[in-house]
Amino acid sequence: HNNLSRKNMEISPSVTLAITAKAKKMKADGIDVISFGAGEPDFNTPAHIREAAIKAIEKGLTGYTASSGLPELKQAICHKLRTDNGLEYKPEHIVVSNGAKHSLYNALQAICNPGDEVIVPCPYWVSYPELVKLADAVPVLVETPEDNGFKYRIEDLEANICEKTKAIILNSPNNPTGTVYTEDELKKIADLAVRHGIYMISDEIYEKLIYEGKHISIASLGPDIKELTIVVNGMSKAYAMTGWRIGYTASNKTIADIMANIQSHATSNPNTIAQYASIEAFKGPQEPIQEMVKAFDERRRYMVEKINSINGLSCRMPEGAFYVMVNISKIIGNTINGFVIDSSMDFAEYLLDRAKVAVIPGAGFGTDNYIRLSYATSLDNIREGLERIEKALL
Ligand code: PLP
Predict the structure, then answer these.
(1) How far is the CA of 310 from the centre of ligand 1 (A)?
(2) How far apart are CA 39 and CA 295, in angstroms?
(3) Which residues are the signal sequence here (predicted)?
(4) Regions of the chain with pLDDT less than 70
(5) What ipTM does the predicted assembly reach?
(6) How far is the C-alpha of 84 from the C-alpha of 207, rounded, in Å?
(7) Rounded to two decimals, what is the model's pTM?
(8) Same domain for 153 and 97
(9) Per-residue pLDDT, 264
(10) 147: domain range?
């Protein structure tokens, strides 16, 4: 097959797929598996948003829209950015896409030339390195170590910047670590980016899922960093709308125009009905977010306390998103009940076989000393799942 696209043949399939596929098969075989793998809220899209979609269909609002999104939705996004984030943008700065992932794809396509380097935090969300490669650029992984709260150290960023560095990816609140950067930390990163003239791709998709501290958009820290930043956000996590596929960017006009042109040829407008539903999500009651956050927070506290009481496991308290990175460095290299555990994948397989619990091995995020547990599942499941893990480690 050496006449197929070399670049695209090198795109990795998800490392985490093996475990989730096995867990699915076990469930299908009637085995009671508890899954900590969820990457989406376990809540339904709020009723008023669903109804807005039904109304759009009934009114016949089912044709194409402007390929970069409905003007009314862009207005609602500008209003959101102004009131939530203190950011002034006009509709011409906004591009609405098929989910934040598509927005990230467009952003990287718009700014990268072959051989450019893009700094990616490690542990990373699985798609970042592959999205960078799809743009013919090179992902440069910069450690965000647990003893630094899973955040970038300025000196590490500085050490990895060279003339090829085009952008830094920043993700706060973070997947997979749940970490949230403070305003002070963001200021230092912004200063560095401005000093070197490096673009900032700020993935703020978990903005609304914060339990401690406050979300700050790095773009709001001054006109220079705003000019360099592509803010990426979307409906998936805040409004439990993962399947609706609406994300968006806010950026300077030049970048927005390039992204809009790419999208106009590649995909055209994102789903029209989902765009109408998104307008309602912004304009309608915001209480459903608060209810979801309350449930996540309760689960988060329970999960972290329980994990830290289990021999061999530890984790820091994440401030946002719905994931806990569990440190398994004390387990790696050991044999438990006859199983040799040499990697996060071994441990995930052990937990699935022995405890009927599915977790995501850290290897999928570039860090083998961890597993990721999602608390986007009921408190009952969390209790039962963690008890099973505890027993499997006795
Ligand atoms: N960015 C991060 C860090 C994510 O975890 C996800 C989804 O898991 C996305 C972006 C993509 O979200 P969307 O559903 O809007 O494409």
Answers:
(1) 30
(2) 16
(3) none
(4) 15-16
(5) 0.99
(6) 10
(7) 0.97
(8) yes
(9) 97
(10) 63-283
